[in-house]
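TEACHING EXERCISE
Course module: macromolecular assemblies
Task: Read the component lines below, then compare them to the predicted structure of the full complex.
Student: A.B.
Group: 4
Components provided:
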Amino acid sequence: MKISRSEVEHVARLARLALNDEELDALTGDMDAILAYVDQLNRLKTDGIVPTAHAVPMANAFRQDEVRPSFTPEQAQTNAPAPDPGGFRVPRVIE
Amino acid sequence: MSSHYEVVIGLEVHVQLTTKTKIFCGCSTAFGQTPNSQTCPVCLALPGALPVLNYQAVEYAIRTGLATNCTIAPQSVFARKNYFYPDLPKGYQISQYELPTCRLGWLDIDGEWGTKRIGITRIHMEEDAGKLVHGEAPGSSQSSFVDLNRAGTPLLEVVSEPDLRSADEAVAYLKKLHQIVVYLGVCDGNMEEGSFRCDANVSLRPVGQEAFGTRAEIKNVNSFRFVKQAIEYEIERQADVLDSGGKVVQETRLYDPQTGVTRSMRGKEEAHDYRYFPDPDLVPLEIDAAWIEAESALLPELPDARRRRYQEELGLSAYDTEVLTAERPMAEYFEACVVLLPGQAKAIANWVMGELARKLNDGGLAIAQSPVTPRLLTDLLKLIEGGTISGKIAKTVFDAMWASGHEPARIVEEQGLVQVSDTGAIEAIVDEVLAGSAAQVEQYRGGNEKVFGFFVGQVMKASKGKANPALVNELLKQKLG
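Instructor-supplied answer key:
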């Protein structure tokens, strides 16, 4: 087994997914199969190969430090379910 | 603290950069604006929006690394730190993980422990999150409000080695780092607005033990005083736990300045599993030797180097150099004066730290706003040096310069403040004073030498402060002799 049911449960919790037993079983099987397939890569010798940071072979894409127009607060909240002058309104977060 | 424990402290400092715009988009970073008025598709995390790195932020990161003796990485990579919180619109924070821009630096801190070198593990670049306001709008106590103006503001996170052994050392390190980033101009240093804030990792271990104890992390402390109080409280708390046979729990705690207590922040405890991975939206950052060289050439002279120079080349005391170099504008003002009037560093230092500092303080002014410029101040000192006015009158002239911004020579002339060095004129005053103070003359001749000061005072008063004090002393001694 490449991944256990409890690891799938843990990952689901991190992703805020509520899965029932049936879904957990199915996903554990699927993810195990995917990991087993990808695991074939471990047969390659990768000693001395630098990990790839990006698939595109380029570096240093910059912008200059110049202010560009922003949204208005109303525009920013166009798609918000509860727009408010004080900001995006969300259920109270307890710290 | 019970003396059988040694405290081990490491600090993580968030330094907000003074760029005009955010780290990955062109929205302004100005503080205190209308909520969500500085947002765009990138910092709101709208689908399809792509981040582009702010060049200025990279320059500031390199300069900070160089000023803290770090190695600048030839390649650094931005990574996604994944977690859910309402102030984080993308569901991840762009940060750096395995390949930060700066590594392995150090700072020297001075104190009762002598000079101690504190290691810096790394400095990485990242974006800030937004701001949450809890239920302040009327009738909405069950809501929180998200303001994303701050989301995407560029930060450097400076991570120290666990080399600090007391709250005082921690504060000395923080002050040193604060002074450096403000000198560099990469941070405004405003702790109240959160431009410079600190997380402290604190643990205890029995004296002599090599292995570290379990640590607690105190989050987001935003003043030097609170850092000291929070760490001292935490040391006591952990010592109590250990003394009573308990175990310190690894957790995040918040310091409450109102009560002086740290308390556990349980809500955020669940799984510190950030699943970092390289952000595919950003290409790697590559910094070659030529770039480092160019940034290095732009570094100002830093406080430590300045302090050494003031002591060795200008002959100032350790205390004077400390005061003069504390803030870069004051050091630059002082140096501008030294250039205009070489060889008078000590006199300049006294005026800058004395009259000038007092006036600035009274008026709540920054030194750059001083009506008395380095040229006016040194012109004043030249008048003293040349014997035109006495040091005492110079203070009067200084006050007049402060009020009017006029040349000192003009003030001296207009107010008739030229020092009287005419022996005859002073002698007349001395005679007059002695004639009118027969009782004191008697006392002096009877052996009470303290009365001498009284005569000097009377003569100066009679001359309206203009008599040359050296001549007054000489003549008085002659006459009383």
